[in-house]
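Good morning C.,

I know you're traveling, so I'll keep this short. The sequence:
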Amino acid sequence: MEEKEIPKIKRDWAMKFKAWGLWYIFCFITGLVAAFFFFAGFAVKNLRNDLPKILRLAAVIGLVLEVLLFGVIFPLLMGKQKQAFKAVLTRISSEGYTPEVMNMLLDGYSEASASTTSVGYANTYALYLCDAFVALKDYDRAWNYLSAVNTDELFRYNSPGLISEKVIWYSERIQLAALMGNIPAAEHYLREAEAFFREVRGKSPAFDCIADSAAFEYFFALGDLARCEAVITPYLAYKELKFGSFVALGRVYAKRGDSYAANRYFDSAMMCAKNDFFKALCERERSLAIRGVI
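The C-alpha cells, ready to paste straight into the viewer:
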C-alpha cells in the first residue's frame, strides 16, 4: 500500500481578513474620536469643513493602532503562553504522555483556566488532558476535563484550529461514552455530531480519522467488528495515522479470537511507535486485547 502524507491544512485567509477588518473598524472609530477632539481643540467652528481631514487622520490612527495591536500588544500578551504551549506539544510528540509532560499539561491548564483572557488555551489544554487520560485509561478524569471545555468559546469562531478542537470534542464524547459502556449516551453524542462530521469530512485525513476512531469505539462496544475494521482500515495509508490504526485492528482481531492476526497488527504498531510511551501503550493494549479484557 502506498504511504501517504497528511496534507497541511490551508490557512483560512478569509477568516483572518474578516478578523483584521473587524478590528480595524474598532481602531478607526477610536481614531475618529481622537481626530475629532484634535480638530475640535484647534478649529471648533470649522469641523464641517475639516471633515475630510478628520476622516483621513482617523484612518491613519486606526491603521497605526491595528499594527500596534497585532504586531506588538497581542504577541506580548499571548507570546508567553504560546511558547509554553508549543514546548508542551514538542514534548508530547517526542515523549508521549510521560509524568513530566502530564505535569506540564496540568500546570498549563491551571494557569490558563485562571485567566479570563486565556479561555481558548484552557480549552486546548483540557482537550489534550482528556486525550492523555483516555490513553492512560483513566476515563473519569478524561470526562472531567472534557466537561471543563468552554463550549461558548469553542463554537465562537470557525478557524482551522477551532475546527480541529471541535472534531476532538465531539469525538471524545462519543469515544468516552462507548469506553465507559454507556451505549445510549454514545448513540446520542454520535447523532449530535453527525451534521458537523459531514461538514468537515474531507478537509483533512486527520479530522476524518479522529471522527472515525470515535465511531470505531461505538461499533466496538456494540460488537460490530466488521464496521470497526471498515472505518479504520483506510487510515493505514497514512504514515502519521498507522500506529493507532494498527492498534485498533489488533483489538478487532483479538476480539474475533484470531490471536495470530492480532499480534501481527500489534507488531506493526510497535514498528510505528514514535517513542517508549507509545510502545508501552501498544503492549498494554495487546495484553488486554489478547486476554479479552478489551
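Safe travels,
E.
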